[in-house]
Each structure stands twice: as structure tokens, then as C-alpha cells.
Amino acid sequence: MDMEKIPAREGNHNLKDYERARQTFSWDSIKSNFSWFETGKVNMAFEAVDRHADNPDKKDQTALLFSSPDREEKLTFDDLRRESNKFANVLRKYGIKKGDRVFLFMPRSPEFYASFFGIIKVGAIAGPLFEAFMEQAVRDRLQDSEARMLITTPDLLKRVPQADLPALEKIILIGEHEETVDQYINYKVEMEAAANETEIEWVDLEDGMLLHYTSGSTGKPKGVYHVHNAMLQHYATGDWVLDLKKNDIYWCTADPGWVTGTSYGIFAPWLHGVTNVVRGGRFSPDDWYHTLGKYSVTVWYTAPTALRKLVSAGKETVEKYDLSALRHILSVGEPLNPEVITWGLKAFELRIHDTWWMTETGAQLIVNLPCLEIRPGSMGKPIPGIEATIIDNEGNELPPYQMGNLAIKKGWPSMMRTVWNNHGKYESYFIHGWYVSGDSAYKDEDGYFWFQGRLDDVINTSGERVGPFEVESKLIEHPAVAEAGVIGKPHPERGEIIKAFITLNDGYEDSEALRDEIRQFVKTGLSAHAAPRELEVRDTIPKTRSGKIMRRLLKSWELGLPTGDTSTLEE
Ligand code: PRX
């Protein structure tokens, strides 16, 4: 689509000369923004919380503006320091130390953020889990990480496996609960008894901080391992891309169970000491506009799937609210439709800045910067310090307009350092020093990158990444299902929806009731967002001679596309 280019935004952003910044930039130049610059010993929690709490001008500033349909709370930087100190002391009391994995499985809440920083303060590794996960999803992650401790709520405890987790010593419960099981610890009781001060564990830049599980096209979800050093990039992009200033009220709509909700829902804003809005509860256009207006949000980071729903809600809805404080909008997670950008120009009189990155990359890499023109449909250009290109399967760089693998030159601060328990998997992402993203794209003659699709079978539904293998594995656990093949099917609002093809075991017959039951089985066993919206019963599932499900073929059939090479198809 040939859409008009949108000129660079006038404003108070720090990065004004992109080309020059790219030529002269080195990551070392960011280091002087941190307290560890001299000592080399670091802790992300100190930089994001305590440093501001130690500053008399900042300590009473609101750090967290939390609201959900039934709760509203404000925490200053000083509050957040105290609460995270207390939690660090609770963890220490139960023997948690540097390098241990401590997982969080709960809805967004002030306690989440206090616990999260408490974990980091003792040098442990935080593993946030999305609250909608069901038992299997929780089990896979706790097993693989060998988490020693889990923080959850009595409600969600039902989805925490009672067996098969030998490493899990204690479960901290936030909220009233009656069971007096030895393994359970009461958050409130422990926090009341804990001291306000703690010793921060000073670690090395390369020490672990965070494990985010994410899906690939094969195997169980993998633990993407991030280190404290990532803060360099969280800080730099918070400045250049989010354009954060001292008095900003910032809202990132992502849940901290996903990487956007940590890198840009926690680290980037708090490294810059801005007021961070967290809104719990479900999405609705009115609720979101209300949140933007009520808190006078100035910088807003959200996702195409939500923006598309806001577009559908129409102009009448947005016009009910006073959004005059808003000055900068960003998007991530899936392709940002040019139509949405056009609508943003009308509805907010603002550009919407697409940003591209992944769980694995830890922070933004290719972005639309305030200082650059926007070409609607393009993800933008690599930030200073990042070299991006398009390569073929042999690792050769391709000229402009040729589609290929989107790849990034190895060596940026926020890159994952390994895949937990599977360093071989980590190494498999690289070819000739390039990190191969799994996305296909091309670049134009001016260096703008244009996303084309995933090269593997990973599904992106409403901005959430789902591995087909996980869903297939769950499907075949159902007694009626013999085989399953799962694909992403394009959908106007959700990007993709999950479609499953199954064959049935003898004695079962296709019916709507059975299909409903199977869908429900995935929903309650794995997670709602992984449940197939469409389910089709077939006589066979196409497979290669070596027994691999040919998802590509299923997809071509579904979409009425040419089937391509089927020479490996089993008879
Ligand atoms: O396919 C790309 C898509 O989301 C994938 C990464 O998903 P995840 O690790 O869950 O991280 C999402 C948020 C960082 C990418 O490989 N993706 C992400 N951003 C964009 C995108 N696709 C198109 N345009 C984007 N801006």
C-alpha cells in the first residue's frame, strides 16, 4: 500500500540527529547514567527504585499508580523501596539467594511489583507467569526452571500442580487462605514482621535477573534468560523511543507475564523515574480511554490488537474523553496496520510509533523514532547501537526490497544470554554472527524495515505468541483426539486466530458438542489464549515421511493457496 509518509514529530525528544547518533554511538556512553558506573557492581532494583527513593526530590513522587475495577492504590518510590526491601527480607528468611529462581503467578497488583523487585534485590531470578495460565502451562515452566519459590494468590493456587515439582519449596500466598499446609507462607504476616531495610545483593552486569518463557514452533516453551546488563538498553530506548521526561505519566498496557510488561512496564519507565500507570482487569475501549484521561497519561505504549478494537469502537467513543495530556503513542507485538496509524492521526492528532523486538531481544531494536518520518506499514529503523539486515538462509546479506530473514548483528546489551537448560538452542539462533529472528522482512533503499511474516509456525494471536506444538500436545491428551495439527489463520482484529485440525480415535464421532468440549479442554488445561477458536475434524493430518506434521500444507489448504512442494508428504 502506498500511503503518505508522516513527517518527523516536533517535540522535546533527545535524539534529534539519527544518522549522526548511529555513527558515533557506543553502548559505553550510556553507562554514566548509572550508579554502578564506577564500581561495576550493579542491581537493577537499585537503579529503578532505590536510586530515586534516595533522592529527596523524588522519593515522594508517585512511582506506581495502580488501579483495577476493585482497587486503587498509589506507591511512591519510597514506598516501593520499603515494600521491596521487606519482601527481599522474607525471601532471605526462607533461604532464597543469588541465582535461585522465584516465580510470580498473579494478576497485576502493587504486591506484584514489590515482590518482583524484592526478588531482584536478593540477586535471584524472577519468573513472571501470565495469570491466565492453566495447570499444564504452570507446571512446564516451574519444572524447567526448577523454581524454589512461587508467589501466587489463593485463587490461582488451584492451577498450581500439587505434585511433580520437587524443587519448589515454598508458596507465598497473597490474600486470605485457610489451608494450613507447611509449604504455604502468608504474604501479609511475613511482610508485617519483615524489617524495612535490606542489604542489596550487588551482582555483575552479566548475572541473571529474569526468565521469560516463550513459545517456538517445536517443543515446550523455552526459558529466555536475561541479565542485569539489559538496563543499558532499557534506559537508552526509554529515552530515544519512549521519549520519557521527568514529569511524564506513562502507561504500558502489557501484562508483566510478557516481556513488554517487564522491559517497558517496569524497567524502562522506572529507570527514568517516571510515574507508571498499571491498569488491571479486562480490556474495554471505554475503560482504556477513561484510564488515559483520568491519570492524564502522556506516553502510552500499547498493541495493534487493542488499537484495532479502539478503531472499531469508533470516533464517538474516543470523543467522550479528555485525552489532551497524551503526547506520544507507541505500539508493539504485531504488524501495525497503516489504517490504524491514519486513524490515530485523526483520533489523537498524534502519530503511532511502531516498534519491533522480541522476548529474546529483551528490548526494542527496530523502531519508529520521534525524529524520523513514519512510513505507515514499516517497523522503522534500527536504534543507534543496533545493526539490522536481511540475510538469506546461508547468511548472505540481501539488497533492498529482497525478502529474507530479519537478522541482527550479535552483541547488544539486552539480548538473552541463554535458553534455560538448553544452550544449544540458544546457539542455533546464530549464523555468521547474526541473530536470526525467525521473522521475514525486507528493507527499503532508505533503511526502513518492512515486516512480512513469521518464517516458522509460531502463531501471533492478539499479540500473544503461541507455539503450535504446545496446543497440539494438549489436544491429543483429550481421549477423543488421535492427531492434531495447529495453524494461525489471519483474522482482521486479532492478527491471527488458532485453528486446529484433528483426527478422532475410534468410537468418537464429530459433533459440535465434542468440538466444544475439546476446545474447553485446551482452555482449562493450558490457557484461554491458546485454545483453538476453530476446530475441524479430518480423516487424516498431512505428515512428512519422517512423521512431522505439515502445518504449512494445512495452512495452504485453509487459505486456498498453492500447496508448494509436497514431495516429502507421506503417502
Ligand atoms: O513476529 C514478530 C512479532 O512478535 C514476535 C515476538 O513476539 P514476542 O517474543 O512475544 O514479543 C512481543 C513483544 C516484544 C516477533 O518475532 N512482532 C513484534 N513486534 C512486531 C512484530 N511483528 C510486526 N511488527 C512489530 N512491530
From TrEMBL:
Pfam families: AMP-binding, AMP-binding_C. It comes from the Bacteria. Transmembrane segments: none annotated. This is acetate--CoA ligase. The keyword Nucleotide-binding applies. One of its GO terms (cellular component) is cytosol. Its EC number is 6.2.1.1. GO terms for biological process: acetyl-CoA biosynthetic process. PROSITE patterns: AMP_BINDING (PS00455). Residues 58-418 form the AMP-dependent synthetase/ligase domain. One of its GO terms (molecular function) is acetate-CoA ligase activity. Residues 470-548 form the AMP-binding enzyme C-terminal domain. InterPro entries: AMP-bd_C (IPR025110), AMP-bd_C_sf (IPR045851), AMP-binding_CS (IPR020845), AMP-dep_synth/lig_dom (IPR000873), ANL_N_sf (IPR042099). Keywords: Acetylation, ATP-binding, Ligase, Nucleotide-binding. The keyword Acetylation applies. It comes from Virgibacillus pantothenticus. PANTHER family: ACETYL-COENZYME A SYNTHETASE (PTHR24095), ACETYL-COENZYME A SYNTHETASE 1 (PTHR24095:SF14).
